[in-house]
Amino acid sequence: MNRNIKILMHTHWDREWYFTKDETKVLLRNHMQEVMSFLEENPDHIYILDGQSIMIDDYLELEPDAESRMRNLIENRQLRVGPWYTQTDLLLVHGESVYRNLYYGIKRAQDFGKPMLVGYAPDTFGHSSQMPQIYSQFGINSTFFWRGFSELKADKSDFTWEGIDGTRIFGGNLSTGYQGAKYLEEDRPQLEARIRKLMAVLDKYSAGTGRLVMNGHDQMPIQSNIIDIVRKLREIYPEDNIEVSDFETYMDTLKGLDLEVVRGELTHSRHSRIHRTIGSTRMDIKLLNSEIEHKLYNSLEPLAVIGSDAGIPYPHGVIENILKTLFGVHAHDSLGGCNSDKVNRDIKQRLMNAREMIDTQIELHLRLLTLAKRDEKNVIVIVNTLPEHRKDEYLEVEMITRSRGFDIIDEAGRKLEFTILKQSEVDAGLIDRQVAARLLDLEVYKSVISLQVDGIDGLSTRYFKVIENGGYNAVERVSENSIKNQWGELFVSDNSLNYRDLRTGQLRRNVLFIENSGDAGDSYDYSPPVPDRILDTTQSGRISAEKVSGKGFEELRVSWTMNVPSDMAGRMNGTDDTLAAFTASFRLYDNDPKVYSKLKHVNNVKDSRYRLVFSTGIETDMAHVDGFLSAHNKPVYMTEELAVWEKEQWAEKPISVETFQSFVHLTEGSRNVYLFTDGLKEYEVLEDRIHLTLFRCFSHLGKRNLVNRPGRPSGIEIETPDNQLTDVGFSFRFAFSFNLNEVNPSRESKKFLSPLIGYQKKEFNRFNINARKELKEPAGHLNMELGKAAVSAVKLTEKTGDRFIRLFNPENTEISVVLPDGSYRASAMEEKLESVGNVVLRPQEIINVIVSN
């Protein structure tokens, strides 16, 4: 047959890896100068700029005078940019980050011309099952990728990809990789030998007459002799049509074909590595990223919506700056942590800078909201950032008072019950430099309180008064090792933490414990040493506990210690010479069936993996977990894949370690167990236990011949001592429950990650600000009847300043949602479509809504 051979000229631009982003910026300037000169000399040629618009900004930052040249080439469709802002990871980031990455990538490309609306993700370590719907909402009807495909999914590399909601787009697996035709040889015999190998693979896997030949590689300069190369290829294959082309033209060769349908995640590792345990590499970086994402999407954006009603300008520029900082570390290598130590330090510093920005903006908004209460000098503002009414919930508030004791009074003059969790005397001059400048010797009390709020409307505020010299309601310490509420009792006995379900009487011994194992892997993959010794706090550790109680809750403060090997040599020779210590708090509220937990640890060993083990009492073949704006079942054991991987010589073993976003739910008959997490995203179910990876530490960026990954090293074999995470402190937050029946875990996890916010108008502050005359108490609210729908985002649109709400249906049945008056369906680019009132969401459907002000 006559083949249509489409050569795509491109570069794959890892912005950082074992080199820094500043190195690649300088290299990019040189690269773009060559690319633009070539395209200007050859106006019939096309060049793909790796699907990411940040390359526009990185180049113009160093070469601003070249903007008109670049604009002309993009407008002429010679230079293809977008749709991504950066080439993001597609499993570990927040689903909202995926939406915003595409939004800003397309928006930036539109500044110069028409974006490339192709879901190009060549080197990402797997693809979420929600991506077809997300792509489709941006007008993207195709994706091209390298990693994640196998013949268990389809026989051909051209297929129809059906997402979890039923949305279908074209899927194109790059069967010879994005680098298959890199640096094509000028020598005719060498070129012919090379291209025949490529064509043998493409002939096997291509579904139609088209053959996609990817001429590019990591930071590869443009192949400036491509015209001569194409001429020689036409001589080699005179019967074929050969041209430098693009993805869209390749898809034209598939029109009318009945392509195979592929469903679900794309995470198979037959032809390329997926690195299934990269979700626990450099957990200090991953937890910091998740903290910023959750603060941005669950706190700052909806808080800023409320603030706009109070006369506070919406901080679009601040949010965009924070987002683009996040996008810069969301690439598969960057967020994966599979970089040199120097790069990881830079990534962490950028995230710390972004956290400072978001923390400052949140505090500024809260402070301005208290200043809107002009008639009160000492007041607390309570904020609900969800668009639905909430009742009987607890929050923690930091207080600065001159008096040790104080009372809190609600709007009706009622004294509220609260508990002082901790309190200390501090020098006011260390808080407010004006105090120090006046040489005042003033001690104040810094307290953290737990306060119950009986009810608050959605997207609204309440104001409480603070009266000093009132009561002093501190936590009470009790010499007991047990706490309980109406649902259950958590207690320490026989050197283990246990939970008794008071509704059923069932006792779960060792309900939670810490596991330590060796790690002989690298930054891409956990690898068990051979042999390994697995230790845990139930067998070789010690546990102690102390009970504290307050208004409406009881808390068990637990200390776990165990002796573990200090490094790999110790593990091999049986020397457990280092004391590992974990401290935890477990809180039970009177009105909540969940156990709320915080766990802290400072790492002092090397070559290890720590996991939190949750004994559920449920054995099942499937785990119900959340993904990008979705919830679905994942098998706990990859039966089909593990049956064939050795025979078919997969690139790596398909181990049954999975990723999720914020919850794991196991069910058996009428019994349910839920685990909610804040930033921990890697789990494995073994028998009736959920193993949640806390962190792992190791010695190298890449190693060869790992147990589950034979052959060459991934990355390069350089030592990365920072990856041992020595002296790094960790703080983990999670919750679990055996008594959440008939609930929607997606909504529960959103509440868990979106607590009520409280802020006191303080007498002493680091910075002085004025109470603007336009400030007013926000009077609005939004109480949506969501049913089983979950909220993903609440923000204001950039163009019109209207309220933008993104909802999704995490159920496998249709649900109905009543939208506020003045609602419109919207595109993912935040543009109004049609007016809408009641909507029926199909299973796993995402809907974008604009509510006109």
UniProtKB/TrEMBL annotation:
Q: Where are the transmembrane segments?
A: none
The protein here is known as Glycoside hydrolase family 38 central domain-containing protein
Q: A single GO molecular function, which one?
A: alpha-mannosidase activity
Keyword annotations from UniProtKB, A to Z: Glycosidase, Hydrolase, Metal-binding
Q: Which residues form the Glycoside hydrolase family 38 central domain?
A: 273-351
- Family to which this protein belongs: Belongs to the glycosyl hydrolase 38 family.
Task: State the Gene3D superfamilies in the record.
Answer: Glycoside hydrolase 38, N terminal domain, Glycoside hydrolase family 38, central domain, Golgi alpha-mannosidase II, domain 4
Looking at the keywords, is Manganese present?
no
* InterPro entries xrefs: Gal_mutarotase_sf_dom, Glyco_hydro/deAcase_b/a-brl, Glyco_hydro_38_cen, Glyco_hydro_38_cen_sf, Glyco_hydro_38_N, Glyco_hydro_38_N_sf, Glyco_hydro_57/38_cen_sf
Q: Name one GO biological process term.
A: oligosaccharide catabolic process
Which domain of life does the UniProt lineage start with?
A: Bacteria
